[in-house]
From TrEMBL:
InterPro entries: Beta-barrel_TonB, Beta-barrel_TonB_sf, CarboxyPept-like_regulatory, Plug_dom, TonB-dep_rcpt-like. Keywords: Cell outer membrane, Ion transport, Iron, Iron transport, Membrane, Receptor, Signal, TonB box, Transmembrane, Transmembrane beta strand, Transport. PANTHER family: FERRICHROME IRON RECEPTOR-RELATED, TONB-DEPENDENT OUTER MEMBRANE RECEPTOR. It comes from Flavobacterium artemisiae. It is found in: Cell outer membrane. Residues 1-22 form the signal peptide. The keyword Iron applies. Pfam families: CarbopepD_reg_2 (PF13715), Plug (PF07715), TonB_dep_Rec_b-barrel (PF00593). It is a multi-pass membrane protein. Its main location: membrane. Belongs to the TonB-dependent receptor family. Residues 117-226 form the TonB-dependent receptor plug domain. This is TonB-dependent receptor.
């Protein structure tokens, strides 16, 4: 990868050009109060020519070459101004700089129009691309440290769930048969696969995190919230950014982006991101570290402006990941209700096996099945924006794909229990959204549109037993279990397919009853259809006709096949009342009726006492959501934000993913919990104390419960439970905590900065620190005392110099206190008692260089 990064930088450097010329440009720089700004840095973009203003704010800079020319004016504590000159002015130009970090002026496009975040009656957090870069947040998993209402759990890219307010995706292994409850959009394109959230950001302009149902604003229905990510667009003004980071564990990350005019009405932008890092966990069996990073991403855009009212952007992207990674470490052993000889410790003792370490944070494994988590994701999109009347008509057409090629060791040991666990998937999607947003009358504005998605997913899986499978599956003291070769090489071939289509009409209006009081009703009609096929066939193992031996083999794997086809329609909607009490206080209340579409199982079903699949679980009922929310957005003093939100969400027929005790149920199965409830309070605050000090923080209290869930799977420690001699398969967990829901989570950060010069460039020298903490949470669909992730806090810091033009440098450190913590705990396939942990990164540190032209 280092060679590829070097070659790309070489190509980009050749493509990058600068403009210079030989005349004087004179001007005066002032602030909003018309006060002259002394020592403002004035730079001719794309050159090394610069000067500073005098005590009267005046400057004169000599330039050489042809027009047009762009000058940048930078001053600490103020937003950088960019001015393009097509002719040398005959008199001094007047330039006004506006204060930086004017928090209440942050704009969003969540309601499909540009407006101030503080005016939007939605709980929304905004992270700019610059903020994300400075905090080292190069993917969603790190954004959760800035927005504590977000939770992301990932035991590998496919098994990724992204939640907002502890809702969105079932906790545990991912099932393709249901839709995520959190929408993920990049430049208006919906990404259907949760794996997209594990990818590195490429040239991001802004990340908006919307909390709560958003079905009347976005094409795909979202019951829990949405990520609305916008990338930097092509510019007719030439520019380039180059960035490279080095760190411990051989961390190397490179980013580059160049933009400029390709013609009078055509501009382009090309962006690249690459990340690599050595492994953080030692595999004593292979002698090398695992859980590496090896990511490359590319994004190209062409902007065509045929008229002043129309913009057309053609974009394409491709991301590849080739890590040796996502291995989990055994975190402990839970005693189950099975007989003594079926306990994990007894099993491994009989097999003369010992774990490489009893402490997960020794970060040692001996897993013998190779870990592979290869994925390719990409697509093309065409976005057309054209102004019609007092609004904008937008069409977004996109095709995307996701290829997943894994290999896992689901027993988490060096024993050949599961010799193979591979379920590669190929997914494609086509989406089309057309919407109109704008002013309809003097008092009414709004957005309305139609949306369609058609996606297919194909999984061709293999799961195969090894020579230790007999002992882990042994369910009696019969000597037949020891039959040589009975289970070795015995496995299943899986064919799982799903086609899902969805069409919707949606809209929301904003009725200004008065200048301060608005009513915002929204409505959505949705049609969803899903067709699924699942079949698996057994193969291998000892070839025998002995009925007793065949019965034992069927206890491990059996043939299974079923088809399902279902569709449903739904009306949903919301109404919001908002009152702007003053220019600094905005109060709103929302009621939303939402839903998540019907689901289908495409990963195998548990079997009943007769050994037949429980086909009644093949189709999962849709979720029905009732959501209430009240909030107040305030700006108590200049350049400050203090927002408070309270919410209550109730979901009937909550879709959850449960792990069966049978190894043949490859990825767990889906089920409905009768009812869940999540309620809580959120706080967002930011304070720009002065041009030297900023402070920001966020906190959330979340109470998530199963109100009623009588047919939940058994917790790990209850595996094998019998009542009156009859084995129990389910448990009533009503009243227990939802998995993944911490009662408390929060983040706090600040930055101290001052004027400085570095290699002749004016900028800021800064020190920034931030922390993220969350309390304990259940890591199991049915609460288990062994699968509770303890609360933790991590701290990060950065020290460096940054400038809008020229060279910036920062030294950074993450998890500075080297805190040992789990991000997730999960039982091994078969529920023999051992469970593993997804371990958070230990202390990492490094340095980042960035050069902007």
């Amino acid at each position: 990868m280092k060679t590829s990064i070097k070659n790309i930088f070489t190509i980009l450097a050749v493509l990058t050009f600068s403009i210079s010329f030989a005349q004087n440009i004179d001007g005066v720089v002032t602030n909003d109060q018309n006060i002259p700004l002394e020592a403002a840095n004035v730079v001719i973009k794309g050159t090394t020519l610069s000067t500073i203003t005098n005590s009267e704010g005046r400057f004169s800079i000599e330039s050489k070459g042809k027009l047009p020319v762009t000058i940048l004016i930078q001053y600490i504590g103020y937003k950088t101004a960019e001015l393009e000159l097509t002719a040398i002015p005959v008199s001094p130009i007047n330039i006004t700089l506006h204060e930086e970090n004017q928090l209440v002026e942050v704009v969003v496009s969540s309601r499909r129009r540009i407006e101030k975040a503080q005016d939007v009656p939605i709980a929304v957090s905004v992270v700019t691309g610059k903020q994300a870069e400075q905090a080292g947040a190069f993917n969603v998993n790190r954004i959760k440290e800035l927005v504590p209402s977000v939770q992301l759990y990932s035991s590998n890219p496919r098994n990724t769930g992204i939640n907002i307010r502890s809702l969105g995706s079932p906790f545990g292994l991912t099932n393709d048969g249901i839709d995520p409850g959190v929408g993920f959009y990049v430049d208006g394109v919906y990404y259907a696969r949760p794996a997209a959230t594990t990818l590195d950001f490429i040239d991001v302009e802004q990340i908006e995190v919307l909390r709560g149902p958003q079905g009347s604003l976005f094409g795909k229905n979202t019951t829990s919230g949405a990520f609305n990510i916008t990338s930097r667009k092509p510019s007719f003004t030439p520019g380039a950014d180059f960035e490279v980071s080095y760190g411990n564990y051989a961390f190397l990350q490179a980013k580059a982006s160049i933009t400029g005019a390709l013609g009078k009405k055509v501009a382009g932008r090309i962006s690249f991101s690459g990340t690599q890092r050595d492994g953080l966990i030692d595999n004593v069996a292979t002698g090398r570290a695992t859980n590496t990073l090896n990511n490359q991403g590319f994004r190209g855009q062409l902007l065509w402006t045929p008229t002043e009212n129309t913009n057309i952007i053609l974009a394409g992207d491709l991301t590849t990941q080739r890590p040796d990674g996502y291995a989990q470490v055994i975190a402990g052993v839970a005693p189950t209700k099975r007989a003594a000889y079926r306990q994990f410790d007894a099993i491994i003792a009989d097999l003369n096996y010992q774990l490489p370490s009893q402490n997960a944070f020794d970060r040692k494994i001996d897993q013998d099945t190779p870990w592979r988590s290869n994925q390719d994701l990409g697509g093309v999109s065409l976005n057309i924006d054209t102004k019609i009347g007092s609004g904008t008509l937008t069409s977004t057409t996109a095709w995307r794909f996701w290829n997943w090629d894994p290999s896992n060791d689901r027993d988490f040991t060096g024993l050949q229990v599961l010799a193979k666990s591979q379920n590669p998937t190929r997914q494609t999607q086509i989406t089309q959204e057309v919407r109109y947003a704008g002013q309809l009358t003097s008092r009414i504005s709004g957005v309305g549109g139609v949306f369609f998605i058609d996606q297919t997913s194909q999984t061709d899986g293999t799961e195969e037993s090894g020579n230790a499978q007999w002992r882990f599956s042994q369910s009696s003291t019969s000597a037949l279990w020891k039959t040589p070769g009975l289970f070795e090489g015995y496995g299943i071939k899986t064919d799982a397919r799903i086609r899902a289509s969805s069409a919707a009409v949606f809209g929301q209006i904003d009725w200004a009853v008065t200048d301060r009081f608005h009513i915002l009703p929204g409505l959505r009609y949705n049609f969803d259809k899903k067709d699924a096929h699942y079949s698996r066939t057994t193969y291998g193992g000892l070839q025998t006709t002995d009925p007793a031996l065949l019965a034992l083999k069927k206890q491990v794997y059996s043939d299974q096949a079923f088809d399902s086809s279902t569709d449903n329609t739904d009306f949903s909607g919301n109404i919001t009342l908002t009152y702007k009490a003053t220019d600094k206080i905005n109060v709103y209340g929302t009621y939303a009726k939402s839903y998540k579409p019907v689901g289908v199982n495409v990963a195998g079903l548990p079997t009943n006492s007769s050994g037949q699949p429980m086909t009644e679980l093949a189709v999962i009922k849709p979720e029905k959501v009732n959501h209430f929310e009240v909030g107040v957005k305030t700006s108590p003093f200049k350049n400050s934000i203090f927002n408070l939100t309270a919410f209550n969400t109730e979901i009937k027929d909550f879709q959850t993913n449960v792990q069966a005790a049978e190894p043949g149920v490859n990825r767990g199965y889906l089920a409905n919990a009768d009812k869940v409830r999540v309620r809580g309070v959120e706080l967002d605050a930011s304070f720009f104390i002065n041009s030297h000090l900023t402070i920001n923080g966020a906190a959330t209290y979340t109470d998530g419960k199963y109100v009623k869930f009588t047919n939940a799977p058994l917790p790990l420690e209850d595996t094998g439970l019998t009542v009156n001699g009859v084995q129990v398969a389910f448990k009533d967990v009503s009243g227990t905590d939802l998995p993944g829901a911490s009662r408390w989570a929060g983040s706090l950060g600040g930055e101290l900065s001052d004027n400085a010069k570095f290699f002749g460039n004016a900028g800021k020298i800064f020190f920034a620190a931030d922390g993220y903490a969350r309390s304990e949470f259940s890591s199991s669909p049915s609460a288990s005392k062994y699968l509770v992730v303890q609360g933790y806090a991590i701290f990060n810091a950065r020290l460096g110099f940054r400038a809008s033009q020229g060279l910036s440098i920062q030294i950074w450190g993450r998890n500075l206190l080297n805190k040992d913590y789990y991000e997730q705990l999960l039982p091994a396939g078969g529920n023999a008692g051992q469970y593993a942990g997804v371990i958070g990164d230990q202390r990492t540190y490094g340095v980042t260089f960035k050069y902007s032209l």
